[in-house]
Write a structure and sequence with these properties.
The complex is a heterodimer. Chain A contains 10 helices and no strands. Chain A is mainly alpha-helical. In chain A, helix 3 packs antiparallel against helix 4, helix 6 packs antiparallel against helix 8 and helix 8 packs parallel to helix 9. The N terminus of chain A is likely disordered. Classes of the chains: A mainly alpha, B alpha/beta.
Chain lengths: 257, 250
Amino acid sequence: MWGEAPETDGRRSPLLTAAALAVWCLVWEAVGRAGVVSIVPPLSRVAASGLTVVTSAKFANAAWISLKAFALGLGLAIVVGIPLGILMARSETVGRILRVWVNVFVSAPVSALVPMLMAVVGIGQTTVVVTVFLFAVFVIVLDTEVGVRQVSRSLLEMASCFGAGRGALYWKVLLPAALPEILAGLRLGAIRGVKGVVIGQLLIAILGVGELFETYSQNFLFEEFWALVIVVFAFAYLVSEAVAGLERRVEHYARAR
Amino acid sequence: MVEVRRVSKRYATGVEALRDVSLAFPRGRLTTLLGPSGCGKTTLLKVVAGLVQPTTGEVRIEGRRVEGPGPERAFVFQDFALLPWATVLRNVAFGLELRGLPREAREETARRWIAEVGLGGFEQSYPHQLSGGMRQRVGLARALAVDAAIILMDEPFSAVDEQTRRKFQEDLLVLLRDRGKTVIFVTHSIEEAVYLSDQIVLLTPRPGTVHRVVQPSVERGRRSADEIRRDKGYLDAVDEIWQELKQHVG
């Protein structure tokens, strides 16, 4: 279930999406060729240098470091965020103590804390991992809590009536019932995680994709710069779509709650 | 035999739901708790289920004090309480799954009860693909599948339309016939109570107290539903209960 490709959404016409995309590509190409704005080269040249960028060893290295930071940070956010969200929903005390902080941090501009992080954990991969974690974890906590809270009282009473122990209550009732919200939190967390990688690395400026961005923009290599932007955007989009595909699979059975 | 001894319940909000309720539910009989909304009948049922702790008093089943839910009791919920992500088969087998029965055994039992309640062929359907009446049949099959001696039903037919409800009442009597179950059934419908019950407990509201216990003399035997609904004992009981409850309405 987890590894499968996202289902195509029947309500959206793929043809229309492709056409819209094509129009914008043409506009970009035209603007680039007219030379109106110096930082925007024609799309065709961006694509061409994109190919050299993507195939370079430098990019492979940067991508690997960035992916590692992303996976570690997001993994940590999931491992911490889901249990914390459940705990907040199930324990009135924990919920009351933590809710206000989670709400503050979920809307706060966490990027402002990254320079502080550098002072605490040093300048390096750890900072980026922690940044990804901080970007992703709060929305996961929040959505998990909402999901567990909205599980109907009678479903819990049913489990208790028919003899569910603590483990069965969580694994067979609470978690599956909260799964749509947990996945929504996961999708938002993953999107924020991508931002976390880029922002963390940009602020540190000596690592991964962030370092490449720095190099390209400082040296006026706008073709390479835009190529990298497209790659990062596409990655964020694909991650989000993959989780959204999972969500749609879950939705079909959760519709009648 | 289920005994409720001097049970009172006051919620943390200060609402007094039950005051000094003492009742006996004879084994193998169907007893209804009847009364207007707010008379604490669902609270009383949940106290018997072990889902709600009484403030004072106790419930005893065959002499043993109730401390929580137990395998000798099964519950049918007003809103069905089905797992939306599970098929009819898994939902009906869920009580047995929680008891740790192997898959084969529990599914065999579940299939038998699915057929008994008239849902044969819907084993692989999901709850949202079924009508309200069919969903409650799933809830009923789940309660029967665990083979509990006592079945607690909380307004099980209130969420379905009148025609479905009548058919369901008739089917329920057939399903329970000769099985010796002790059933406690909560309803606010006088007709439903008289049609189904061996014993009717009239509760008065705010706080819930026992007003009277009525044993309707309805000649059921193996007569058809329509014959029962024309029975003089049935009509008299409906009228008598209405006269009793009328003073508490409005």
